[in-house]
Design brief:
heterodimer, A: MetI-like fold, two-stranded antiparallel ribbon, disordered N terminus, disordered C terminus, B: MetI-like fold
Chain lengths: 358, 310
């Protein structure tokens, strides 16, 4: 009797559970999902999609300026100029004196943006990995270090720009320590390095934090096996640590690169606008827009956007950055086992970097 | 002491010396160097992160008459700079309130939309999920500057947008563009967090007769609270620290957010950069964030340990 009731209860429960599972996991979920996603997609369309399209439209127009020769009135409105805003960057109408000699302001800023990005990201990555290795070795006090690391991250970029401005002042503490009288802020070659130092200070610790998360997914057995086989510390680092932390690191470096390419706050707050040795494309586009030259501003912003897209494409395709994690359609070849798991740990903090640096 | 340890040593046929040695194992010099090295390294990291911030704090407590003194400790310490921050000329209190309004509204809107979207992405099966994920990712990748030219034109009612209300110096002019980076961030964070919660939780609730909606509200949301809180903090910090959009659209002194106000502080003479006041304002803007970050750390740990299935 007891067994019979148990069976009687078990059988429908199982089928019931199955039915529920089927209902909950597949039937009619598509419609519900799109319903839940609709508000977000709508907001993204309104605050990002439409403005980007408007920017593309804008880049084919120029604001009218000066006096109309026919009517003698001051012109208003705008007129269609085709690709002029884009082709003008090759005309060299606006030469400035920067780090790279005399060249068009657009190309000067393009080179500045690229060089700042390359130098900053390289230094940040090296320092960040070193920090992660130190933290991974630590037994105690990790909490203190982690709290300390979040200090540069939490400070608003504009505040850190002004903080470094004081430090790099010609009679400031940096010159006092160095015993020099370097004009860091006067749009000299040193200004570039002042920007690099300030940016590396703010973001290297965070790369360290992300890399640490990646390091912690490496099982200890791998190192034990390597030790048994007689691998040196350096061999372990190059053959085990780096390859296994690579997926996390590539994603972190990708987001840092994209973030540095659109740098605005730091040079603007620290050195100031219109300083050609450190002016980035974002600052240039901002200055054009605030002087009502919307067309060229939009054109420069779009070129920057395309540049960012190309860099992102390079990272995803050639370096295999797994930005989406396991939910993505398998676009790139899976090179290593366990890649997905590690990318998953990376995806959340990777975006945190993005939010933090704005 | 010797009376209590003596029987043990005879029973386990170990001499007193051997017991001592086992209790304090000899550490190889290499191990010692490693330990010392890691502490030195950690001290280096902490100093690296803290020292520039320390300089900001020290400079904020200097007497304004000391100017750009490079003394490592202010003597005498003074709160004159903090008084100057709130003087009528700088009106920083108003800026802090503006920042709070903008950042809080952005955070709340972001969470409202983000939570339900993240739930769909984490739990439901549907065609096109990969596409949506890529779209949200792409949205957070593009440079914010691309929004500035068309929106500035639109919000300032310049032709051909004369039909559009004049939105320069309004909160919504900053909040809407802030959603473009806040929302992807929130959706991403929350999706990862919802995925960590076991599926069995909702299934159990549904077996007990809950509809998916009720299961989400009564089971998932309370468990996800630490994740939601964490996301809220990150979005809030992002919105609070935002500079480019606020600088473009908030030109009126009474509407400026704190980051913009700090960048526009002027000294009494107009030529000298009032570093002391700027540093004091920087400290005021940063310290609440630092406190929040420390709290957020604790929340994360608590969330990870307490969020399991009972």
């Amino acid at each position: 009797m007891a067994t019979a009731t148990a069976e009687a209860r078990n059988v429908p429960a199982v089928t019931d559970g199955h039915k529920h599972k089927k209902n909950a996991l597949s039937d009619g979920q598509g419609r519900l999902a799109w319903l839940l996603l609709a508000p977000t997609l709508l907001v993204i369309l309104v605050v990002a999609g439409i403005p980007v399209l408007m920017s593309i439209r804008e880049s084919f127009f120029q604001t009218n300026a000066g006096v109309d020769p026919n009517t003698g009135l001051i012109q208003g409105g705008e007129s269609f100029v085709g690709l002029d805003n884009f082709t003008n960057i090759f005309a060299g109408n606006n030469p400035v004196q920067g780090t790279w000699g005399s060249m068009d302001r657009f190309w000067n800023d393009f080179l500045n943006t690229t060089m700042i990005t390359i130098v900053c990201v390289l230094l940040e990555t090296v320092l960040g990995v070193i920090m992660a290795l130190i933290m991974a070795k630590a037994f105690t006090g990790r909490g203190v270090v982690r709290a300390g690391i979040l200090v540069p991250w939490a400070i608003p970029t504009i505040v850190s720009a002004l903080m470094w401005k004081l430090i790099f002042d010609s009679s400031g503490v940096m010159n006092r320590i160095l015993g020099q009288e370097i004009q860091w802020l006067a749009d000299t070659g040193w200004s570039f390095w002042a920007i690099v130092i300030a940016d590396v200070w703010k973001t290297a610790p965070f790369i360290g934090l992300l890399t640490l998360a990646g390091l912690q997914t490496i099982p200890a057995e791998v190192y034990e096996a390597a030790k048994v086989d007689g691998a040196s510390t350096w061999q372990q680092f190059v053959r085990i640590t780096l390859p296994m932390v690579r997926p996390t690191l590539v994603v972190a470096v990708l987001f840092r690169t994209l973030d540095t390419l659109r740098m605005f706050d730091l040079p603007y707050g620290m050195i100031g606008p219109g300083k050609y040795r450190v002016e980035t494309l974002s600052i240039f586009a901002y200055q054009e827009a605030t002087q009502t030259r919307y067309g060229p501003a939009a054109a420069y912003a779009i070129i920057l956007f395309v540049y960012v897209l190309l860099v992102a494409f390079f990272f995803v395709r050639l370096l295999g950055a797994d930005v989406i994690g396991d939910s993505a359609p398998p676009k790139t070849k899976k090179k290593k086992r366990g890649k997905d798991d590690q990318a998953k740990t990376a995806e959340v903090p990777a975006l945190e970097t993005m939010g933090g640096a704005h | 002491m010797s009376t209590t340890t003596a029987p043990t040593s005879t029973e386990s046929h170990l001499t007193q010396a051997e017991v001592e040695e086992l209790a304090h194992p000899k550490r190889s010099p290499k191990y010692l160097i490693g330990t010392i090295g890691s502490y030195v390294g950690m001290a280096f990291i902490v100093l690296y992160c803290i020292i520039p911030f320390y300089w900001m704090v020290v400079s904020s407590f200097r007497d304004p008459s000391e100017g750009r003194s490079t003394e490592f400790i202010p003597s005498p310490a003074s709160i004159e700079n903090f008084k100057a921050v709130f003087s009528a000329q700088n009106n920083f209190g108003r800026s802090l309130i503006n920042s709070l309004i903008v950042a809080l509204t952005t955070t709340i809107l972001t969470l409202l939309f983000g939570i339900i979207a993240a739930y769909a992405l984490a739990r439901l099966r549907f065609n096109g999920k990969g596409l949506v994920l890529w779209l949200i990712m792409a949205c957070s990748m593009f440079p914010l500057i691309i929004l500035i030219p068309p929106l500035l034109k639109m919000f300032s009612s310049t032709a051909p947008f004369t039909w559009f209300p004049y939105w320069v110096n309004t909160y919504q002019a900053v909040i809407l563009p802030s959603l473009s980076f806040g929302l992807p961030l929130a959706v991403w964070n929350l999706t990862a967090f919802f995925k960590q919660l076991p599926n069995e939780l909702e299934q159990a609730a549904m077996v007990d007769g809950c509809t998916p909606g009720v299961a989400f509200r009564k089971v998932i949301l309370p468990l996800a609270a630490p994740g939601v809180f964490t996301t809220a903090i990150i979005v809030f910090i992002g919105a609070w620290n935002e500079f480019l959009v606020a600088l473009t659209f908030l030109q009126d002194k009474n509407m400026q957010t704190a980051t913009v106000a700090i960048s526009k502080f002027t000294g009494a003479t107009g030529f000298d950069v009032p570093y002391g006041t700027i540093m004091a304002a920087g400290v005021l803007v940063t310290v609440p964030l630092l406190i929040a970050v420390l709290l957020f750390q604790r929340r994360i740990v608590a969330g990870l340990t307490a969020g399991g299935v009972k």
